[in-house]
User: Fold these one by one.
Assistant:
Number 1:
Amino acid sequence: MKLQRTAAIVLRQYYLLRSSPARVLPLFAWVAIDMVLWGFITKYLNSVSSSGFNFVPTLLGAVLLWDFFIRVMQGVTMAFLEDVWSRNFLNVFATPLRISEYVSGLVLSSIGTSSIGMVVMLVLATAVFGLSFLAYGALLVPSLLVLFLFGIALGITASAVMLRLGPASEWFIWPIPAVLSPFAGVFYPLSTLPKWMQYLSHLLPPAYVFESMRRIILGGSASIGPIALGGALALVDILLACWFFVYIYRHAVRTGLIARYSAESLS
């Protein structure tokens, strides 16, 4: 794998963002709206709660972490879709570019775009609504890493699905985070779910993150064990996602399905 080819994929995404404010605005606009909406919801809940419980770290913190995961996933899928929408996909793979180099470029592009959203969320949550990340302790950094790894895995998998089913299948991809959120226990303990949902939840790395963060906020002891297990699952998911993308790509080339991404078929 040559880093120059991977860097070329990242550079293309940079030029796309630099030349189009319409592409830059979604990087922080939606997360800002989420932070403002949920920030005022938590302030209202604090004002009407008689128990003195602080909803900011539980609800607003959960929204921040989940939005970060979504931005990471969409950073990969959007970079892939840019090549599809611009009818550039076949041009890219007409070069000596390898699958590993292309996927690595998508991942690095996602790091850049999700970092922008993360900075905006941190500024709004801390400066406007007083969210203190000291409440999460030292486990915050590995928790973000687990969410990042799973977001990358899901983004690669979603790109492979679109490669297999065609450009129109992108509408199957956007609801994925919403479908997963009930199983991940973003806003409530997993014990709230029925047993069959809990079994599925234990296969999702974010479930371990949110359970651990919630335990710390409620005064429980911090434990690296669940986070480590979530990280191991996320690494397995990344390996499976990369294998799935390569398998789908080879299948598309072998069967001729990749021709649907030519300029002629999209015109």
Note: Residues 46 and 266 are 52 Å apart (CA to CA).
Number 2:
Amino acid sequence: MRKYNVQNYIRYKKDIEIILKKIRKPIDGDYCYLTNEEIELNFLPLVETLARKQSTSDQASGVLSINDLLQEGSLGLCAAVNKLDRTILSNSEDQEKTLKSFLSKRIKGSIRRAVDSNRGDIRIPEHKLNEIRRNPKDEKMVAMFFNSVFSSIDATPPGDDENMAYQVIDKSEPYNIALLNTYLLSLMKEFLTPIQYNVLRMSFGLDCDKYSANKIAAELNINVDTAHVRISQIKRDAIQVLINNVDSSQVLDYL
């Protein structure tokens, strides 16, 4: 039970047991006579089942513990129940199966959005993340991951008058950027040469301050007249090495 706050989790389990003993159950599988709140309480075990299927490793869930996942899943459950179409439910031959199918998608979506928004400063839209998860063996996924992390961060915005989007202040906090950096460093150590590793590390400030190209060249004894060109080439080569060699399952662990 890694990352479980055992005391809180045990208390949660005891509370759920008490609730399930007291709440009104459907008669002959008919949920239409239950209130929204009663349906929510009946399906709290479903939230726990789906939350526990989510890995709680640092790569997979970032800063969120099982208790956080349960909370986010419960919020998703409440939102889903409020959108129930009782007419469709009443016409279903198996109401419990229909409810589980309807609620599960929304509970899992709520958990995934919470993980994505709290894990790190990664620039991949949610619909693209979902596309990646549906196609875990797609090689383009690896390229999207590293280009998003490195290339987009390294891009220089156009002039002030050319793109107003860059003038909008981003008030969001990079909540757990250290986790992403640690993950990237582990992949870089595995696949890059020492020079490639250090150029990427110092260029993006993964475990240090960001260095200029000239300073990186001086630190690594790269004695050329056009240091910034050479450093840029090494960065591009290093990113391509990661794209070509990192297994998609390793990226999927993080996504």
Note: The first helix runs from residue 6 to 22.
Number 3:
Amino acid sequence: MTRVLIVDDQDLVRQGLRLILELAGLEVVGEARDGAEAVHAVAELAPDVVLMDLRMPVMDGIEATRLITAQPSPHPSARVLALTTFDVDEHVVDALRAGAVGYLLKDATADALVDAVRRAAVGEPVVAPAVLARLMANCVARPPVAATLPPGFAELSDREREVLAMIGAGRSNSEIAAALVISMATVKTHVRHIFAKLDLRDRAQAVVAARDAGLS
């Protein structure tokens, strides 16, 4: 069963999220009222997913996400899903850079929330459709800027860079396999090598890396 930690400074929000998740059969292992409490709770409770508000007192959700995703074993598997009322592009990028696997708005439906938590638990990137659409539109509309190559990028083969670009475009492993006419096993091998060479934890960080390198 997926174990969830809820982080929000508003009591009513936490209670509502708990009700939605528990009715869906997910286990809420704890709650935190700010980022500092969240960091301690992750170390103590080892949740699979942390539903993280971004604007909170004491420590905001971005810094808390950065600290949580940097925690060493035995708690390296906690996936952070940012959940906020603010859909500012900078917040989305900052949350993903900090290590969040996704960004969801608080006006999401209960079904969308539950689905996002389950996808986040296995490391799938989750971004609210409206936010993703605007980010893509902004990327197309803005003038090109010099790419900032991630450390280790030079070690990638041409095929690995091609796969990274497709990850950055939101393609799944099966879609990449079909587009490149290669097997799923080969795609998984390429993804594993990319993650190792760029020191990436999950696909959300790979999306950011692809963007930094100018591949998406």
Note: The chain has a mean pLDDT of 85.
